[in-house]
């Protein structure tokens, strides 16, 4: 008699993986058509009522609702439909902390690019970038030629940052620091959260010129121009601002090869004063490369689309590079939710 172990896959799990593209399409369509917002505002609608509100025919509505109910995105009681609890919390675009923008990034950027995952593996490059024509060899360069996609990307990164910021703020005490540099800080979501939490802290966002313009608009809207600023430049070739005592890389090192990450750490070491700190924040892979699932599913995007060289690395990978860069004291903050963590190197 055969026995199923924890490391073996069952048939239902295999069916879900094989139909993953369909499952995602059902999930994203619920956002795109406003279904989750509708059921959040009017819970308990029947199928005919949903069809009328969404301006759909009966059969398409039935297919959509059946799929989302089977996926447990919706809950059906008698003939009435409700958002699942997590759906109401995370998939209603109008709600603070909504993950809906992340699904938009998946739909418009990740899904098209991952069509070429096998080719990317064979050629060890981001073959999926061909779906985004324009100058440059990375997605981030190409997006400047596609303002609509760049906004989708930045909105998704902002949503990811909004979710992750709470983990960073609860895991690390920035109150002892004076001036933090957020390298690749995007639209300033990280910087603004840090400035609000630690009122004596100054934060500078270091990113490309077009992204810094978005950041400046958000900083101005928040009224924090006195403590949050921007500095446009290339993180590899341009000098970092002087006078910072902490350098933060939030969800950045996953983009590049470990050799490039080491170069950034060495640059940070040279920039920081004695006693200064470098912080790597993001999702951390297991040291034995067995997962977790979130990092395993996230890594193909970096190979096939983003840069052709990154992945979600393990704790041990980062610690090794920290020591090689010269940071003698390296510590883990490993009790954060959703496989997030911080590695802190002190000079």
Question: What percentage of residues falls in helices of 4 or more residues?
Answer: 40-55%
Which class best fits the helix and strand makeup? alpha/beta
Rounded mean pLDDT is: 94
The best one-word shape is globular
Query: Rg from C-alpha positions?
Result: 22 Å
The ordered H/E elements are HHHEHHEEHHHHHEHEHEEHEHHEE
Number of helices: 15
How far is it from the N-terminal to the C-terminal residue, by CA? 58 Å
So what's the CATH class of the largest domain?
Alpha Beta
Tell me the total number of β-strands.
10
Second CATH tier, the architecture of the largest domain: 3-Layer(aba) Sandwich
Strand content: 5-15%
CATH topology assignment of the largest domain: Rossmann fold
Question: Major sheet: order of its strands?
Answer: 6-5-4-7-8-10-9
Whole-number total of structural domains: 2
The CATH homologous superfamily of the largest domain corresponds to: Vaccinia Virus protein VP39
Q: Major β-sheet, in short?
A: 7 strands, mixed
Low-confidence stretches: none
Question: What report would you give on this structure?
Answer:
This protein is an alpha/beta fold and 347 residues long. It has two domains: 80 residues, Arc Repressor Mutant, subunit A (Orthogonal Bundle); 247 residues, Vaccinia Virus protein VP39 (Rossmann fold, 3-Layer(aba) Sandwich), CATH 3.40.50. 48% of the residues lie in helices and 14% in strands. The chain contains 15 helices and ten strands. A seven-stranded mixed beta sheet has the order 6-5-4-7-8-10-9, with helices on both faces. Strand 2 and strand 3 form a beta hairpin. Helix 2 crosses helix 7. The longest helix has 25 residues. It is globular. It starts with 10 loop residues before the first helix and ends with a strand. The mean pLDDT is 94.
């Amino acid at each position: 008699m055969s026995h199923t172990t924890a490391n073996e896959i069952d048939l239902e799990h295999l069916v879900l993986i094989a139909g993953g593209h369909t499952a995602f399409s059902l999930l994203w369509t619920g956002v795109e058509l406003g279904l989750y917002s509708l059921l959040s505002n009017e819970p308990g609608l029947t199928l005919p009522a949903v069809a009328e509100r969404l301006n759909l025919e009966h059969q398409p509505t039935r297919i959509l609702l059946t799929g989302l109910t089977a996926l447990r995105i919706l809950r059906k009681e008698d003939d009435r439909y409700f958002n699942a609890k997590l759906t109401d919390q995370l998939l209603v675009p109008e709600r603070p902390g909504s993950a809906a923008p992340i699904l938009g990034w998946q739909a418009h950027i990740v899904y098209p690019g991952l069509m070429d995952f096998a080719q990317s593996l064979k050629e060890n490059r981001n073959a999926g970038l061909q779906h985004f024509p324009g100058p440059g060899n990375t997605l981030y360069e190409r997006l400047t030629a596609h303002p609509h996609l760049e906004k989708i990307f930045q909105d998704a990164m902002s949503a990811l940052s909004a979710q992750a910021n709470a983990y960073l703020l609860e895991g690390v005490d920035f109150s002892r620091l004076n001036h933090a540099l957020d390298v690749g800080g995007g639209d300033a979501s990280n910087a603004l959260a840090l400035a609000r939490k630690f009122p004596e802290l100054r934060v500078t966002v270091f990113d490309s010129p077009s992204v810094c313009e978005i950041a400046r608009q958000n900083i101005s809207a928040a009224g924090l121009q006195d403590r949050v600023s921007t500095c446009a430049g290339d993180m590899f070739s341009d000098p970092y601002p002087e006078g910072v005592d902490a350098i933060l890389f939030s969800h950045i090192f996953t983009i590049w090869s470990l050799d490039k990450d080491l170069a950034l750490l060495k640059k940070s070491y040279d920039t920081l004063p004695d006693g200064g700190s470098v912080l790597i924040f993001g999702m951390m892979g297991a040291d034995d490369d067995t997962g977790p699932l979130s990092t395993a599913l996230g890594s193909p995007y970096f190979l096939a689309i983003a840069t052709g060289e990154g992945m979600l690395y393990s704790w041990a990978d980062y610690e090794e590079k920290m020591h090689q860069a010269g940071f003698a004291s390296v510590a883990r903050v490993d009790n954060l939710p959703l496989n997030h963590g911080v590695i802190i190197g002190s000079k």
